[in-house]
Amino acid sequence: MELTKKGNSQLLSKLATSDQHGENSPYFDGWKAYDRDPFHPTNNPNGVIQMGLAENQLSHDLIEEWIKKNPEASISSSEGVHAFKNIALFQDYHGLPEFRKAVARFMGKARGGRVRFDPERIVMSGGATGANETIMFCLADPGDGFLVPSPYYPGFNRDLRWRTGVQLVPVMCQSSNNFKITKEALEEAYRNAQDCNIKVKGVILSNPSNPLGTTMDRATLRSLVSFINQKQIHLVCDEIYAATVFRSPEFISISEVVEEMECINLDLIHVVYSMSKDMGLPGFRVGIVYSYNDAVVNCARKMSSFGLVSSQTQHLLASMLSDEEFTDRFLSENAKRLASRHDSFTKGLNEVGIGCLESNAGLYCWMDLRQLLKEATFEGEMGLWRVIVDEVKLNVSPGSSFNCNEPGWFRVCFANMGDHTLEIALGRIRMFVGKFKSVAVNKSWQRNLKLSFSSQTAVVAASSPHIMSPHSPLLRAKN
Ligand SMILES: Cc1ncc(COP(=O)(O)O)c(C=O)c1O
Asked: Where is the Aminotransferase class I/classII large domain (predicted)?
């Protein structure tokens, strides 16, 4: 085995043999635990429930209904097959004009109609995953750094770093102010990077936030823009959850903010978007790079050859997204369903004394389990996480995998399952907390926890989780 590893390091590229992919984290370990023993209401009722996947399955019926009513939108139906030849032939990397136009309009609508997007600046990519990597390739060289407010989406470790060689420098946000990004934290991260001789090329963040489920207020966005403008570095806003906002305050896009501000270098502003969350279509792999910088648009467009969206998908979406009546109804109904799901889930948690960060967006809650930690450390968090995955059989994601710097926070997704499964998940949490409360008294709760809902002993044993430091490896090296 050792020999193979050594052999491979000589045979293969550094990229192929590096572990920068980020797969070695509890975030993905939890997914593997689910894959080994997936819950099914009848075939495997004691299996692991997947609560680690930020997927929106709540409004698929509306899309199905639209597809049935609009068979001509698909080239695979007798009503639409006349367009087959045109669509099947080679399409260049600009994308179908009607697709770019429909996406630009939809992006405006997803931001409350307060901003307009230029179809000429819409560049396609394979999901936001591809879009985020493309933008890194355009803005940074290997070794350059991007500041990223933490906790942050674990996929960033793969998407932004792995193939580009870019380094991520966390901007530490704290629970004491609901993890808001402050100017002080930005300045500190910038200084830390400089102390490590890292050239900072920009700030990247997701707004609405994954994992917090919160939206950034106007003042914070303005201060962020002032920060990057003063330093003359880039700002990349991943707005993949722009329309996944189900309650006030309304979402404010970076595009809206920069339009209001004066003396801002727009060449520094870039937006990433996708159809994966707001339309619930992650399988379609539709990602968008939208940049105000002409050179970036040109370069990203050339790069998009490596991750084009199939013209069949473009064709279907062009038609669906330009149906204004449908998109209006979809967005408002989807927001209602998300609000209702969020409320029933957080209410269920509250009933057993579990709180979440107050949120108004996203497909998840940022659950506060600090009171259940055996010790307030990341080892304590890992111990609790193992119990939750192995015994309670819920795949939730520990805060450390989001680079959170305070142990005890967990992200729990609530929109990727039906009501019945969610009820079962809540039942398991109820039982677990009840058991915890009774066992905690004699201080040996973790050893004694065996939950009666499962007749099996825990065999899930998520492969031994690598405890991700809440600090960047860089900053650790420095300390
Ligand atoms: C903030 C953020 N960016 C990007 C992605 C990747 O999205 P896509 O499926 O469009 O590649 C996700 C998916 O969870 C995400 O949460």
From this structure: 49-429
Give residue-wise pLDDT tens across range 102-161.
999 999 999 999 999 999 999 999 999 999 999 999 999 999 999 999 999 999 999 999
Alpha carbon separation from 56 to 201, 278, 330, 424 (Å, rounded): 33, 8, 13, 19
Q: Which two tokens stand for residue 343?
A: 């409320």
pTM over 0.85: yes
CA-nearest residue, atom 13 of ligand 1: 54
User: Strands across the sheet with 364-368, in order?
Assistant: 355-356, 364-368, 409-413, 397-398
Tell how far the Cα of 238 is from the centroid of ligand 1, in angstroms.
8
Q: Is 238 a catalytic residue?
A: yes
Pocket test for ligand 1, best of 124, 277, 290 (most atoms within 8 A of CB): 277
Q: Tens digits of per-residue pLDDT, 218-257?
A: 999 999 999 999 999 999 999 999 999 999 999 999 999 9
Query: Ligand 1 pocket: which residues have CB below 6 Å?
Result: 54, 127-129, 153, 155, 206, 210, 238, 240, 274, 276, 282, 287
Predicted confidence band at 4 (pLDDT cuts at 50, 70, 90)? low
Check if the beta carbon of residue 300 is closer than 8 Å to that of residue 289.
Answer: yes
